[in-house]
Design goal:
CATH superfamily of the largest domain in chain A: DD-peptidase/beta-lactamase superfamily
Number of domains of chain A: 2
Distance between the termini of chain A: 162 Å
CATH class of the largest domain in chain A: Alpha Beta
Oligomer: heterodimer
Number of strands of chain B: 3
Structural class of chain A: alpha+beta
CATH topology of the largest domain in chain A: Beta-lactamase
Strand content of chain A: 15-25%
Strand order of the largest sheet of chain B: 1-2-3
Helix content of chain A: 25-40%
Structural class of chain B: mainly alpha
Largest interface: A-B, 40 and 56 residues
Order of helices and strands of chain B: HHHHEEEHHHHHHHHHHH
Number of domains of chain B: 1
Radius of gyration of chain B: 24 Å
Number of helices of chain A: 19
């Protein structure tokens, strides 16, 4: 009995214990499910947050590593790979009043003290103005293009509000050289004025900006041209000058200068006012430099078959109510070579009259004088061109470069056509690979071109171009001194003087055009203001500098054969 | 008088196979391989591989940050170190997981005692890093609290499972007292992140041990009260909560981390191509999740979250079928520690939780903490070992509800 009750008590105790164990096990298992639910909820919250970050937040700035290795803007080089423009990482000084983000003052130190420290770093900063900027609470640039060492000093001031974001800037290592060709990059990151604007897409597209854009410009020639033009311009007190060196066989522009120039590294109001390109944008009545073109057209069409034919030149030519006169009486009767050598308006007008307005107009059209010049630059001037049928007088004035206004580039292109065998080609600022020059179009016969080479050389040897005749370089060229049109007619004292030349004349390779705007008569030009005294000497000094660079060495033993024409002009050595 | 003759096999006849326990080492490993949770092991290895890649991507940022003019750290300095620690951790993981369950339990209890002792010593002989005295330097430097965590979870589970033998034992107060001691020691360091983990682990365990739900509610309220008190009287907590609520300044860690996280978009910048990470402090530890976001994208972040959830669910769903109270408690405690640490870190990186200074387990760079976490997983594997050929009664949800398990 006893044992039975005892065992029963033990049994009930065991049963209770087993029951409790079962129950607590069940509880634990069920609450594990609670735990599962809790973790699922937390994970769901995390996933939703990730989705929200991905969908609602602005997408991150896409950054291509290949792009990061490229310059921010492509490099521009000259034809030999010398850099003309390149990307340049710089710092800017940005004022961010919200940087401290604690609702209080934007600066830790007083504004005047910070301004004083900034002025110590940048002495041209106005402390009062800077203090006003710092206290105004407006964000903005205080300065741009800061040197790294200055950036460090600004950092050392210890103001969080002075931020130094890195910016990519454009640097022109050659300074103002070829400024009109290159242009500049504006604050919006796009090019302006020159090739920077033309090549903008190439220079910014990640696919192409890795390879530098090569221009046809040769920095050495460009430097020499700018140097000689500036010297000539200052010597005769001219208002401006323009020059161009052109490859006659490819149409490549080796140098193109418009003075006064601007500095693309620092664009200010003055720079803005000088961005006007005299070579491609301004049209001028270029005067006597057109005479060889007229003579070439006449020879080409068979109107002038005999260069010995004499034309009356003693008295001004009366056409309608208009008198065509020369600067001085050259002779009673002179032939065409003499007319070119002495630059006779009267004889050229007679030749043009014999040629007829239609044929002259046709030649001028073939030379591209009726449209904007062929060049990549955005600023290209439209010639003053008479569209309809030319009257007789128009043809006669155009024959000596009046009544038509074109850019110096037009003239250089026409001269290249005249000396290279008669092929007109578009001019370009892009480097042309060997053998890839455009075919062009024939304007003159090769025989005409050969004859004109002789005549141009004669002008430089015997005529108005003698000041350009550098020994051994076989230069040929024509002067032109045109009066600028003013209110109520031409102004006799304001001239545009031009010298259009080619060299070497035995196998012309390059055309050089130099132009002066309103030169004065100074001691340097023997108190003369015509092209023979200012533009021609510039070319005469320039060609010996650039000739050897371009592979043309001075050689006095070589020259174009002038023996068949020499008797026609007689002994003219003393003629001025 | 017929005596039952013992059976003697004749020559050429086989003896009947007798049930026997494996003796050889090879047999033991075979049994181990059959009994452990191989899916869990695979998920953990996957996570560690991800951690290797993540530390490789975060290493240059931290190496540059910690380089001085005198000493320049190699770009992949932390990566190579991490590989070494991971190798050690794997050894620890496998070795621990091979322990028999009882030995694992006893060892953990002993370890808990030892670590509690070291924790007591920390205020006296601890070395100070970043303004907090958490480390013990005994030839190798380690944080006692790191190793205390798994040992603590197993010990508390053990204490709570006493109830199955003697229902009248006040197990919850006993474990609470133990927790109290640990909290006091941790707050002295100060170490708010680990404190939260210990409290969370203990809460999960007492919840599973059958604490009535009203009391759970009361405890929750007490927790909020404690947080308030901590906010009012504990500087470290106040600063962190303040900066979380206030959004912080433009240059604090949380803001830098969120910028880093979002700078990769959905698909990320690519390995070693992130830029924001370079200005991020603690890129290889606390904010490695943000670095993953920048270099591998938000999609991979989501994969990380899902991976952690998969590990947690795998362990818990197996525990639901378990029949031993201690196993359920210990397993839940360990996975709560692991998952809690993971999700606190992830939520901090996602700016859903105030900055805590915890690492992303098994992904972040860490020396002794990597070992400790591998040890945690090893314990988990050892404790949840089960014979796959033994049938067990399936868990019946409705039956459990009828018996009033929620009461």
């Amino acid at each position: 009995m006893n044992s039975l009750t005892a065992s029963g008590a033990i049994a009930t105790g065991r049963v209770r214990l087993v029951d409790i164990r079962q129950r607590s096990l069940l509880t634990a298992r069920l609450r594990v499910l609670l735990l599962v639910g809790a973790f699922c909820l937390i994970a769901l919250a995390a996933l939703l947050r990730i989705a929200w970050l991905g969908l609602v937040q602005p997408p991150p700035h896409e950054q291509s590593m290949a792009e990061a290795l490229l310059p921010s803007r492509g490099e521009i080089t000259d034809r030999n790979g010398v850099p003309l423009a390149r990307a340049f990482p710089a710092y800017a000084l940005w004022y961010d009043p919200q940087a401290l983000n604690d609702g209080g003052s934007a600066l830790v130190k007083p504004a005047s003290e910070v301004a004083a420290e900034l002025t110590r770093i940048f002495p041209d900063l106005d402390p009062a103005e800077t203090t006003r900027r710092l206290t105004s609470g407006k964000a903005g640039y205080i300065r741009r293009r800061i040197l790294p060492e200055d950036a460090n000093r600004v950092q050392a001031i210890g103001e969080l509000a002075l931020e130094l974001p890195r910016e990519t800037d454009r640097q022109y290592p050659q300074g103002s050289m070829a400024a009109h060709v290159l242009g500049y990059v504006a604050a919006d990151g796009h090019g302006r004025v020159g090739m920077e604007q033309v090549l903008d897409e190439h220079l910014t597209d990640p696919a192409t900006r890795g390879t530098p854009a090569a221009l046809s410009i040769d920095t050495r020639v460009q430097g020499a041209l700018e140097d000689e033009l500036r010297r000539g311009m200052l010597a005769v007190n001219a208002a401006g000058a323009a020059g161009i060196v052109l490859d006659v066989d490819t149409g490549e522009v080796l140098a193109l200068a418009s003075l006064p120039e601007f500095d693309p590294n620092r664009i200010d109001a003055r720079g803005q006012s000088l961005m006007f390109n005299r070579v491609t944008n301004q049209v001028y009545e270029l005067g006597s430099t057109f005479k060889p073109l007229t003579v070439a057209a006449a020879i080409d069409s068979g109107v002038v078959t005999d260069l010995a034919k004499l034309y009356p030149a003693a008295r001004p030519l009366q056409v309608g109510g208009f008198r065509i006169r020369d600067s001085h009486i050259i002779g009673q009767y002179i032939n065409a070579p003499q007319a070119l050598i002495h630059s006779s308006n009267i004889v050229t007008a007679q030749i043009a009259d014999a040629l007829g307005p239609d044929r002259l107009k046709r030649t001028m059209e073939d030379l591209g004088m009726n449209e904007r010049p062929y060049i990549e630059l955005p600023a290209r001037g439209f010639p003053i061109w008479h569209k309809g049928k030319w009257p007789r007088l128009r043809a006669m004035t155009v024959s000596y470069g009046h009544g038509i206004a074109v850019t110096p580039l037009h003239l250089a292109s026409a001269y290249a056509t005249m000396v290279n065998g008669g092929i007109w080609r578009p001019t370009t600022l892009r480097k042309v690979a060997p053998g890839e020059a455009p075919r062009g179009r024939r304007v003159f016969k090769a025989s005409t071109s050969a004859r004109m080479n002789q005549l141009l050389r004669m002008i430089a040897v015997y005529g108005t171009g003698r000041h350009a005749d550098a020994p051994g370089f076989r230069i040929g060229g024509k002067t032109g001194s045109a009066e600028k049109p003013g209110v109520g007619g031409y102004r006799r004292t304001s001239l545009i003087t031009t010298f259009a030349a080619a060299f070497p004349m035995d196998k012309p390779r390059y055309v050089v055009v130099a132009m002066m705007d309103e030169p004065k008569g100074t001691a340097a030009s023997s108190y003369q203001r015509t092209a023979a005294w200012n533009a021609a000497p510039v070319v005469g000094r320039l060609i010996p500098r650039i000739g050897p660079l371009l592979g043309i060495l001075p050689d006095t033993s070589r020259d174009i054969d002038l023996t068949d024409l020499k008797p026609l002009v007689g002994d003219e050595e003393t003629e001025e | 008088m017929t005596m039952a003759r013992p059976y003697v096999p004749r020559p050429g006849e086989r003896t009947a196979a007798r049930p026997q326990f494996p003796q050889s080492r090879k047999q033991q490993v075979k049994v181990w391989w059959r009994e452990i949770d191989r899916v869990l092991l695979a998920l953990v290895f996957g996570l560690m591989v991800l951690g290797t890649i993540a530390v490789a991507s975060a290493s240059p940022a931290s190496a540059r940050r910690l380089s001085t003019s005198a000493e320049r750290l190699d770009e992949l300095y932390f990566y190579w170190l991490h590989l070494r620690w991971q190798a050690l951790g794997l050894v620890a993981l496998i070795a621990t997981s091979m322990l028999p369950r009882d030995l694992a339990r006893r060892g953990s209890i002993l370890l808990a005692g030892a670590m509690l002792f070291f924790l007591l010593l920390v205020p006296f002989i601890g070395s100070e890093v970043n303004g907090a005295r958490r480390w013990i330097d005994l030839g190798i430097r380690f944080q006692p609290s790191e190793f205390l965590k798994p040992a603590f979870a197993v010990s508390i589970a053990w204490i709570l499972s006493w109830k199955a033998r003697d229902p009248d034992m006040p197990v919850i107060p006993i474990s609470g007292a133990l927790l109290g001691v640990v909290i006091v020691l941790l707050m002295a360091q100060p170490n708010l992140g680990d404190t939260i983990l210990f409290v969370g682990c203990w809460s999960v365990l007492v919840l599973l041990a059958g604490l009535p739900l009203q009391r759970v509610g009361i405890m929750g309220a007490a927790g909020v009260g404690l947080m308030t008190l901590a906010y009012l009287f504990y500087d470290n907590a106040r600063n962190r909560i303040d900066s979380f609520l206030g959004g912080g300044t433009a240059y604090d860690q949380v803001d830098l981390a969120s910028r880093t996280l979002m700078s990769g978009g959905w698909t990320g910048a690519g390995l070693w191509l992130g830029r924001r990470k370079m200005s991020l402090p603690e890129a290889h530890t606390d904010y490695i999740f943000s670095v993953i976001g920048e270099e591998f994208g938000l999609l991979v972040c989501a994969v990380v979250v899902v991976l952690y959830l998969a590990i947690i669910l795998r362990v818990l769903m197996r525990l639901v079928d378990e029949e031993n109270l201690f196993t359920i408690l210990a397993g839940s405690g360990l996975i709560a520690l692991f998952g809690g640490q993971a999700f606190i870190n992830i939520l901090v990186n996602l700016q859903l939780f105030p900055s805590k200074g915890t690492t992303l387990p098994l992904v972040s760079y860490g020396g002794s903490s990597t070992i400790a976490l591998c040890f945690t997983i090893g314990l988990l594997v050892a404790i949840t070992r089960r014979n796959p050929f033994l049938p067990r009664d399936r868990f019946m949800f409705t039956g459990a509800l009828e018996k009033g398990a929620f009461r």
